[in-house]
Every structure is written in C-alpha cells, then in structure tokens.
TrEMBL record:
InterPro entries xrefs: AB_hydrolase_1, AB_hydrolase_fold, Epox_hydrolase-like
Annotated keywords: Hydrolase
Protein name per its UniProtKB record: Fluoroacetate dehalogenase
Domain AB hydrolase-1: 32-220
UniProt-listed PANTHER family: EPOXIDE HYDROLASE
Pfam family membership, one: Abhydrolase_1
C-alpha cells in the first residue's frame, strides 16, 4: 500500500475461520479504540483522509471487510449467512479481540455501517458509540425499494441469484463500479477519490472472487440481514449506545437530515443525533473536513 495513505499505521494479517483478514492500525496504544468499517465497492482505504486525524486521540483500526480489499473472499453458503452483517460483525469483534480491544467505538459507512449497527444490536457490551455514515436501516431500505424500484436499482440487481450479476459485471468491472461511484458522488465524477485509493478499489473489484463476494453481501442483505432486522423490530430491540447519523445530501439524505433521522428514530435508534454533510454518498472522501469535525464532536461528548 502506498505509505502516504496511512502514515505511521501498522499492518495486520489476522487468521479467522473464514480466512485471513487485513487491517491497519494507528494512534496511541493506550487511547480509546475506534473501528472504521468501509462500504461497497471500496476498501479500508476510503478512510485515508480522516483516519490520521482520528488517530491523534484514538487507537484507530481500519478493517477490510470479508470479500473486499485484501481480506478473505470465500465462496459463501447457500443461505448467504456467511456474508450476513451478523457474521461480519462477529468477524470484526474477533479482529478487535486479536488486537487487544474488547470495548470500542464503531464508525461505519455504507455496508460497513450495516455491519456496525448489527454488531451493536447483537453485542451491545462491545460498542461504546456508533456513527453511521449515509445509510438507512436495511429493512427501511428494502421497503423503499419495494415502493419505488427506481430508487436503488443496484440492490435487487446484486441480490439476484448467481451467476447473472457476476457475469454481467465481470464483462467490464471498471465500467460497472466506476459508474456507480460517479452516480453516487455529488459532482458525478471520480475527482473526489485519491488516485492511490481508487487504484486499490480497482484492484479489489477486478478479482472475480471479490465480484462474487460483493453480490453475496447484497444477497445477505435481501435475506438474513433483512430477516434479523424485522425480528429485532418486532421484539422492540434498540441500540443501547449513543448513535450519530451522518447522511450525505444526495443519496440517503434526500430532503435533508430530517428523513434520515426519522428512519432511525422509528426503528433502532430513537435517541440518535445527526448532522447532514454537504456531500454525495462518499462523505469521508468528498467532504472529509465536515465529516471529521462532526465525528470529533461526537467522540468528545
């Protein structure tokens, strides 16, 4: 990895039952631990603009989720449980345990935020604080898609049975994934992404096993992830830790902060606070200054 993306950070290879996982860590060893979880179709490199600043006050761990970046990309099981956010959350806990952190804060973006809130619901004793960047609860997202399939067409497409999505994407992975990046940024270009980070994203999404893993991630979203959300809602389960919602202005945050906060208040986080970030979907890369400032205020409370 180019040294200038995470100056002073250490690299870790951690063996778990599903394979070897990659993480970077930096900051004072005695500082409060902070886990950063990236989204689709990126890697831990998406945090490079804010992780060094967060590492001044926290022990920051940036993890490549299963199927992404340099972490293992197993085939997965027929029920898609291997790529469920519950399983990914368990893997995140195992990584943090190996690094010596039993209790930590989680900041997640996109799919990583889904792992984060599932982990916090399943193991509330593990998570001190939770920041969710530009997502709505999975169950809310699917309800919106069913009401208007034009909203997020990649969700049902990627969740289709194998191998149709894998085959279509595999014809030209760069065209597909870069098309999504452009569509989800505020200015419709790739200018927000550092060339070194974009190169790492391309390296990951051009691997057939990782294309399949991304589809499995979304198949899990349509199956076990939605099912467990529905069950927890019916049981009245709520997030126990302080929660910060940071929507971008054009992807999740259509209509401003209020609709995003309302979705969380009505589901898993009745006491969540939030700030809208002037950005497209990729808030930590498109507007790192505002994203960092909001996170620092939250972490300092």
């Amino acid at each position: 990895m180019p040294a200038d993306l995470f100056p002073g950070f250490d690299s870790h290879w951690i063996d778990l039952p599903d394979g070897r996982f990659f993480a970077r860590s930096g900051g004072p060893a005695e500082a409060p631990p902070l886990l950063l979880l990236h989204g689709f179709p990126q890697t831990h490199a998406c945090w490079h603009r804010i992780a060094p600043a967060l590492a001044r006050t926290h022990r920051v761990v940036c993890l490549d989720l299963k199927g992404y970046g340099w972490s293992a990309a197993p085939q997965g099981d027929a029920a898609h449980e291997d790529y469920s956010k519950r399983r990914m959350g368990q893997e995140a806990v195992a990584v943090m345990d190996r690094l010596g952190h039993a209790h930590f804060t989680v900041i997640g973006h996109d799919r990583g935020a889904r792992v984060g809130y599932r982990l916090a619901l399943d193991e509330p004793g593990r998570v001190a604080r939770l920041a969710l960047l530009d997502i709505l609860p999975t169950v809310v997202q699917w309800r919106r898609i069913e009401a208007d399939p034009r909203l997020y067409p990649h969700w049902p497409f990627l969740a289709e049975p194998a191998p149709r999505p894998e085959t279509e994407i595999g014809r030209d992975p760069d065209a597909y994934f870069e098309g999504l990046l452009r569509a989800w940024t505020g200015d419709g270009t790739l200018d927000a992404f550092a060339p070194a980070a974009l190169d790492l994203y391309r390296q990951s999404w051009n691997v057939p096993e990782r294309i399949h893993a991304a589809c499995e991630d979304y198949r899990a979203g349509a199956g076990p992830d939605r099912a467990v959300d529905e069950a927890d809602l019916a049981a009245g389960k709520r997030l126990a830790c302080p929660v910060l919602i940071l929507p971008g202005s054009g992807f999740v945050g259509r209509g401003g902060l209020a609709p995003a906060l309302q979705a969380w208040h009505e589901t898993f986080a009745p006491q969540a606070t939030g700030e809208a970030i002037a950005s497209g979907h990729f808030v930590a890369e498109e507007n790192p200054e505002a994203t960092l400032a909001a996170l620092q205020r939250f972490l300092a409370d």
